Amino acid sequence: MNIPAGEHFRTIWLHPDDPTTVQIIDQRRLPHRYEVVDLRTHADGAIAIRDMLVRGAPLIGATAAWSLYLAALEACSSAKSLDRQLEFVRSAAKTLAATRPTAVNLRWGLERMLAVLADASDSEAMVSKLRAEAETICDEDIAISRSIGEHGAELLGAIAAGNNGKPVNILTHCNAGSLATVNWGTATAPMYVAQERGIPIHVWVDETRPRNQGSQLTAWELARSGVPHTVIVDNAGGHLMQHGRVDICITGTDRTTRSGDVANKIGTYLKALAAHDNGVPFYVALPSTTIDWTIADGLRDIPIEERNAEEVTHVSGLDGDAIREVRIVPEGSPVRNDAFDVTPARLVTGLITERGVCDASEAGLAALFPERAGEEP
What we know:
This protein is α/β, with parallel strands linked by helices. The protein has 2 domains: 12-140, Up-down Bundle (Four Helix Bundle (Hemerythrin (Met), subunit A)), CATH 1.20.120.420; 150-373, Rossmann fold (3-Layer(aba) Sandwich), CATH 3.40.50. It has 13 helices and 16 strands. The strands form 4 sheets. Strands 6-5-4-7-10-15-16 form a 7-stranded mixed beta sheet, sandwiched between helices. A 4-stranded mixed beta sheet has the order 11-8-9-14, covered by helices on one side. A hairpin with a 7-residue loop joins strand 1 (12-14) and strand 2. The longest helix has 39 residues, at 123-161. The N and C termini lie far apart (46 Å).
């Protein structure tokens, strides 16, 4: 099943035979099962986002967009007047907005979808405009991810040029791959483009406890795309850097401030500290949709999601033909499960965006996105 990155892979799509159904990959079942789930209501979409059938900031935004399209279909079947239908869709947007607080793409996607309602003159126009906007958001995300890959591959090519033929060793954390976007990924996109260009690479894949997005999702993608990689425990990254086994770190982000602070999966900050101590460049790959231009202080202003304790107390895996869950923490032991941390801009070598690579700073981002730089927080 060689499908994780490329022209024919998508993580969310409209059912080819049923325009009232949106389909997604249930990422909770990977890497052991590839299962497609049907979303028929906006509540289905909210559950998919909250319970992490889908995850990754860009894909969360795309799922929210398609969920509002489904809300419009629901509204047309339950309310006669356009005003009542629009009220239903706006209420659905509030439900979706409450599912995951850290990823800014969720808010961005919903705001973009709601904006097209201003031109909806009747029910049919409302539905068609929301469908068209959801499709556009997904198509744009693919193009953005591919462009991130092109710019990031230039960095990998420069390292390879001085590596005497040895593979470029890349360390990544969590999953910022095809499965976190509509296609190609953010942190993985440079890897896939480098592979196309014949640049030799090898990827160190952090397992990324507690949900193991690295060992379960990133490894699944890379294996099926033929990218050489090795899964490591979360605490091995610093050791590998000390011994010269890492040439570059590339992660994704769920929210980036206008000053270059980045929020990403818990444990990213520790990797950045280790990289800084060992002189290893630490890059963050992101679409501009993940930049929150309204805030500058990530530690103060980015909300950090605290998730269910069971993600820490239990693990799941393949037992024969069955996927089973077992408890690994003693009964009665308290658990805290912060899902993200913030890496200050001073620890980030650069930001890889669809418009190029820049310093992790307000000036760096403003140079690439001058149309946003003057906005008031």
